[in-house]
Input
Amino acid sequence: MRGDQSKPSAAKRGIFPEFLGGLILALFGSLVILESRKLALGDLRAPGPAFFPFLLGCLLTIVSLILLVGLSLGKVESKCGQWKGVHWQKVILSFASLLVYSLTLESIGYILGTFLLSGFLFFLMEKRGILLLFGVSVLVSLGFYVLFKQILFIQLPQGIIPF
Amino acid sequence: MDIFQGLIYGFSVSLQLSNLFACLLGVVLGTVVGVLPGLGPVAAIALLLPITLKMSTVASIIMLAGVFYGAMYGGSITSILVNIPGESASVVTCLDGYPMAQKGRAGPALAISAIGSFVAGTLSILGLTFLGPLLAKFALKFGAPEFFSLILFGLTMIAYLTSGSWIKAVLMAALGLTLRTVGADPIEGTPRFTYGFTSIMDGIEITAIVIGLFAISEVFFNIERTLQNREILSAPITGLWPTRQDLRVSAAPIGRGSLIGFFLGIIPGIGPVIPTFISYGVEKRISRHPERFGTGMIEAVAAPEAANNAATGGSLIPLFSLGIPANLVMALLISALMLHGVQPGPLLMRDHPEVFWGVITSMYTGNVFLLILNLPLVGIWVKILKIPYFLLFPLIILLCVIGVYSVNSNPMDIVVMTLFGGIGYFMRKFGYEAAPMVLALVLGGILELTFRQSLIFFRGDLTLFFSRPIAAIFLIAAFLVILSAFLPGLKRIRSQVPGE
Output
């Protein structure tokens, strides 16, 4: 990218997702500055609780803006090329299943929750026979329960299964 | 307590049965995570942090340190036999280790890597034994301005030495520092950015963030591609012991690699990866046959393997004597010490000699364990690589879930872990390194505290930082590091630095 004779436009170089990332960081920095102002800033002689976060907010905003300028001028290398030919659906589904698991863990319990999560993840990674996936998921969820709850005495939520 | 009394006392602690077991467990787990893809020593130590709450402080740190140097050993096995490094400090070992294996010399390659690691590990522990207490005594003279300048220098080095864009590394460090300000203000106790959530008054749970950024994001990153199970060298490994010629050729490279690794390991931000590249480069430069490097030269396996193990001992020096982590793993060891109510730093040796000397001496034992484990059991470690991916990645996720949940029994920590797993995935995609962010998270509290204390002490006069020689040296060094990022020649060198 650097030193190209004719620099392609930002859109052609596919930097918009990365540009968005820089923009989010700049906005986050600005938000930190705004939120810091709700606390006592103090001064150099007696810095208050907001002093350090305020400085960090300024740093985040300024450096993000430098990044955005660097991206648009092609001075900062964009990494957006790594999106082609990847199974991003698997990533999204794994992410979503973990979120659902964490939000329902207390109500359905560790054994059932882990059985469902592991079954789904095994299936997602590779399409195998349903019996094999079922068996492995049962073994894994029960094995983890016995190891961590019964042997290492880690508190795990019971949920709807009464043990 | 002088050094020899300290060593005797240390052995009396580390040779207790429970501590010996912790050491063995640590090095075995370390070897496993070194061999396995998708779970490096950082994620493994973060996972084990909650479990250490049920152990004594000494046993915890002995085990976690064992994971670190055990992973250095384990990583070399996959580099030599599969041509894929189990963790980043073994990348260089692939260059000549795998060609050696292809030529039917996998045995001597594995043996020299274990011997080199053992010798370097032992030498670095000797260095730590003698240099650690000296530096700790010196560090007693440090006040808030010195600590602030040292931490600032460390963070600058870490941002500078991460691979990829320097601007992005600074952004990540700033983000980590900002996240650290969530919770009670360290001087006045005023809640900051808590929005009524009392559970974050003590700050955001670092374990969940680290596991998310390093383990979950690694799994996400791996499952997006169709991974084929690896071709593992199927021929039996014979002739394990290197020839006399192999040992003669490797002796000096092991010595040089140990020195390079040890002294570079002390410097904040360096970690175990960079010394391996430097020692490989040095060996190639001074070799009579540099053109043969990459074709299976045993000295090119011995030197980097020695360097990465020596760096682990070196990096413990700033941790034990200054309370400053030289790399991410050391940052997690600081978290572990703090979880147990132990403040790392110059007073550690005086207030908790059992931790200081116990951990140092356990590393001698750990290195012996690794030498015994690695050579005869190499076949078992290789079998770990045969675990199919469809089983491995879900198992890593489930381990992470239980590791994070066990800290506070709070499902919200799993949510934080998942979110940071997603954030870490995008960070990798866009070339943002997680290391500066995590180190800033760990060091942010003390950086802010010492900065504000210094300002109060200097009555707001920032120039007075330069009236203190040690603080001035670190600040000038930090400034030079920043300046060098803009020099074209150094920019090119920096672009070749490998990531952690």
In short: Confidence is low (pLDDT under 50) at residues 1-7 of chain A. Chain A touches chain B through 69 residues (CB under 8 Å). The two ends of chain A are 60 Å apart (CA to CA). The helical segments of chain A are 16-36, 51-73, 88-108, 110-125, 130-151.
